[in-house]
Write the structure tokens for this entry.
Amino acid sequence: MDKTFGHRNRHYSTSRLVFWSTIFGALLMYIVFRSLRSSDSLDSSGSSSTPLHTTAKWGGKDWEQSVQISAHPRSGSHNSVLVTGAAGFVGSHVSAALKRRGDGVVGLDCFNNYYDPSLKRARQKLLAESGVFIIEGDINDSELLKKLFDLVTFTHVMHLAAQAGVRYAMKNPNSYVHSNIAGLVSIFEACKAANPQPAIIWASSSSVYGLNTKVPFSEKDRTDNPASLYAATKKAGEEIAHTYNHIYGLSITGLRFFTVYGPWGRPDMAYFFFTKDILKGKPITVYEGPAHASVARDFTFIDDIVKGCLGSLDSAEKSTGSGGKKTGPAQLRVFNLGNTSPVQVTRLVNILEGLLKVKAKKNVLPLPRNGDVLYTHANISYAMKEFGYKPTTNLEAGLKKFVKWYLDYYSVTS
Ligand SMILES: NC(=O)c1ccc[n+]([C@@H]2O[C@H](COP(=O)([O-])OP(=O)(O)OC[C@H]3O[C@@H](n4cnc5c(N)ncnc54)[C@H](O)[C@@H]3O)[C@@H](O)[C@H]2O)c1
Ligand SMILES: *[C@@H]1O[C@H](CO)[C@@H](O)[C@H](O)[C@H]1NC(C)=O
Ligand SMILES: *[C@@H]1O[C@H](CO)[C@@H](O)[C@H](O)[C@H]1NC(C)=O
């Protein structure tokens, strides 16, 4: 682990009274915290009734030093990048790749418990070992962002923090507004005010194509019939990006990821929990469309997505604003990052059965109309033309790497 963690205060002269009152105070805070938390079992960032995300876990001399060391590039020709959502699936891989090639990387993540936070902690630990420090804080905390941008001159912001997931929006709609709308605006505001302004690369989603039927999906297609609140917030983000580019001269690149999977992936995604359930002998639910139409996804392996993220970062032009004012037109782009090879979910299950050497118990149900779409297929020729994006991993090869990681990480002995 990073040496900056675990520093202890060395004032041992504290009297017993202070000691016990501190213990008592901490206990009291813990009880209050628990009772707030139990009224809202899944969310730790989005609910209006729990202002837990304002709890500051940042600041102080040690913290500032960790941030500055982490932000420091290997040489003057390398970048200094703020990666939000760095403890997340895509963010952790992108952070590691940037660091490996010599860029300075500072992470920012709130470690919410939308899915098992211990997985986020394990990713954080790995990154710390390679010298990436992750700030624990919320992207909608403008005070934190101001402090951070005062401390570091970022050349780029790779904004990957978001409330992901399609069906969870019915349980906790506010978390999408909090992170994907308010949080995005806070990030853009901080970038606008910075001098020089960084270039921004951020994650939109293939879900903006919504109920479109013309395939493959192309960046020029209309995206005005989203099928979920998640998709609607990503679409809103693209429009907000347009205004910040137009008014303030921010260079902004939106990336529409298509179903990303791989090692260190997200437990809320089908390939992940299918693996878990198949190994346990638990039945899995496979959805199908009207008239037994099969559901298909353009599954994209994480290493290909990382290449797409770095390619778009390297081809991003500088922002043109200064002192919060635009001095000339700035770059505004949106790219599909997919694999251009949709695979039916039944085929996904077959591949997993082969890799796990276990037959799945399948329940086939009609696809509910609560956010998921039938089919995704990316036209990636624009990213190919602009920065040579070319995915190289098919679903069999990618799932093999995922399963290997899964069995190792969860120490499954079969
Ligand atoms: N994985 C995919 O298939 C996929 C597809 C399309 C788009 N995306 C987008 O790509 C990005 C990365 O996705 P991922 O799969 O790595 O998801 P993830 O959930 O693993 O990562 C997101 C991270 O952001 C953090 N976060 C959420 N809200 C935050 C907030 N308010 N402040 C600070 N941190 C916050 C979370 O703790 C998490 O670690 C997201 O924007 C997501 O919407 C992902
Ligand atoms: C985001 O932050 C702003 C200003 O810092 C605050 O007014 C707003 O309530 C926050 N939004 C959400 C949804 O948390
Ligand atoms: C893919 O998109 C490009 C524009 O980026 C377009 O010229 C091409 O016709 C599209 N291909 C298909 C198969 O739709």
Q: What stands out?
A: The chain has twelve helices and 15 strands. Residues 51-260+301-338 form a domain with the Rossmann fold fold (CATH 3.40.50.720).
